[in-house]
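Here's my example:
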Amino acid sequence: MTVYLPAVAGYPGLPGALIEAGLGIGDIVHVTEYVTRPGLQLSHARSIALGGHRVPVSRVPVEAVVGDPSPYILGVSAHPGGGTLLAAGGDALRVADGIVYLPSVHTTEGEFREQYRWCLDRIASLLALAGLSPAALTRTIDYTATATRADYPRCGRPRREVLGAGPVHPGAAGILVDVPVEPGAQVAIDALAAMGGLEAINPGWARYDTLTYKPAVRAGGKIFLSGFGALDPVSQQALHAGDLLAQADYIYASIETVLTAAGASGSAVTGLIEYVTPDAVADYPRTAALRAKHFPNAAVTSVVCSALLRPEFLLETIPSVVPA
């Protein structure tokens, strides 16, 4: 079973965090670096911590870590034995328990839609290492430059061209960043994929019939969920503007609705990533009781993003992979 560690305070703390979970460096299948300082170099610290163990790495620029002044933290996924390494040149993927872990991808060439299409094509070439196509994708997370918010709907065309007409599409989430992962990069994409056939999970929300993502997909015995904000799935209107607690309550209930449709519950969620906007940081501790009520077993990683795709959103929550 894959383990999602609580946020690790940097590479020096990685061995101890793994030991506490009964794991070792060789069990790591993916690392996400949530970095608060532009240009922060982590390759040396990463090399020392991982030794010769190659894993796909995602780098996510954030404004801050909630309640922590650290320049960066780590999100770590691990599976006993570390799965199977698939590598070509500088690229590394890990396949563990049917899940395919990829590194994040980005380019600095072209305008927004061209960059978005390049990222999807790059993901397709990485999946080919595992003998898969983009049809195997179970979740994408877009980190787009805040200045491109008005252009974001233009990603629909390249998504449809690469991902196909459906009926199954991956879950998705969208986060805005003021400072991109590299100067000139207007978008970076994180992705997960899975071996075997996929099944779309939708509790009856018609808006998803025309979109290139779904509330969740099932692959084998696992559920991969989208990111959730306080959005009415019928009217497509943002809800509870300015009220973080009300938004959190709505988000958590929406996640449970999708899990119920998949035959699961909030108690099965072992990890959550929460993207909090700067305006919501002061009130964020007040969401803890709500979160514990819905997801009593979840380790939570909370970071401050520049903004979210809907200006009214104060919070977006992405659950970990959930056993079906």
Q: What stands out?
A: The chain has six helices and 20 strands. The CA atoms of residues 241 and 312 lie 5 Å apart. The chain has a mean pLDDT of 96. The two ends are 12 Å apart (CA to CA).
